């Protein structure tokens, strides 16, 4: 029992105060909040309600920003960390940007392009953020147009064209080769022609069985 009480006293005197200090320090570090500034520009036609319909999503929508009349925005109360900033618009498409907020450097912000395949590759972009519309949002799927390659890569066309190409190209290849190779090719072709002179097995069976059946009928 004395050992048990001594352990409790040790915990209350040394370990619990340290845990409280560390937890308090974490709260102070995470208490700092920063803001992300930027502006959106759209060239060409702008709907009348494009400002009210556009949203700025940070970290998948955990932090949301709204546009002002001039297209600028500010996302407040963002803690230090790395976030993907996206523009959600029903009329236009925008490229996302990754923003790194450093808590050690008192909120220093670095903006770079989003690269999900190579996250370590850093291509910086200017800050405050400047989003430009890439293209209008596609509401309808584009109909496929006819192409010449569709006909050329058709299996039926390939089956018809490839043998013709072989017939045209092989004689030229044979003529351009050495005389010895020509003799070998001719001998192989002769062997193939000789095999044509041999009787067909199906014809041989048909003739023999048909003749045997006729003899039996005559008897």
Description:
- The chain is α+β, with helices and mostly antiparallel strands and 219 residues long.
- 45% of the residues lie in helices and 24% in strands.
- It has a 6-stranded antiparallel sheet. The protein has a 3-stranded mixed sheet with strand order 4-1-10, with no helix packed on it.
- A hairpin with a 5-residue loop joins strand 7 and strand 8 (108-113).
- The longest helix has 30 residues, at 2-31.
- It starts with a helix and ends with a helix.
- Residues 19-29 and 213-217 have low confidence and may be disordered.
- The chain crosses the membrane at residues 151-170.
Summarize the structure.
By secondary structure, the protein is an alpha+beta fold. The protein has helices at residues 2-31, 50-53, 148-152, 155-176, 179-197, 201-218; strands at 34-41, 55-58, 63-66, 72-78, 81-88, 92-93, 97-102, 108-113, 124-125, 129-132, 135-136. Mean pLDDT is 74; it is low at 19-29 and 213-217.
């Amino acid at each position: 029992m004395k050992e048990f009480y001594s352990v409790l006293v040790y915990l209350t005197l040394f370990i619990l105060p340290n845990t409280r200090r560390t937890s308090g320090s974490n709260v102070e570090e995470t208490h700092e909040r920063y803001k992300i500034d930027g502006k959106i520009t759209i060239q060409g036609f702008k709907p009348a309600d494009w400002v009210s319909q556009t949203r700025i999503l940070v970290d998948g929508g955990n932090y949301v920003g709204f546009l002002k009349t001039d297209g600028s925005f500010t996302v407040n109360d963002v803690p230090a960390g790395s976030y993907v900033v996206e523009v959600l618009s029903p009329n236009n498409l925008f490229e996302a940007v990754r923003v790194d907020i450093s808590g050690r450097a008192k909120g220093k912000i670095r903006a770079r392009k989003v690269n999900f395949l190579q996250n370590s590759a850093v291509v910086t972009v200017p800050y405050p953020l400047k989003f430009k519309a890439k293209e209008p949002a596609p509401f309808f799927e584009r109909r496929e147009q006819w192409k010449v390659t569709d006909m050329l890569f058709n299996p039926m066309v390939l089956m018809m064209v490839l043998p013709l190409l072989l017939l045209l190209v092989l004689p030229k290849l044979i003529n351009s080769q050495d005389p010895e190779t020509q003799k070998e090719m001719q001998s192989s072709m002769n062997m193939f022609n000789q095999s044509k002179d041999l009787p067909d097995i199906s014809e041989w069976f048909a003739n023999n069985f048909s003749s045997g059946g006729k003899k039996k009928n005559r008897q």
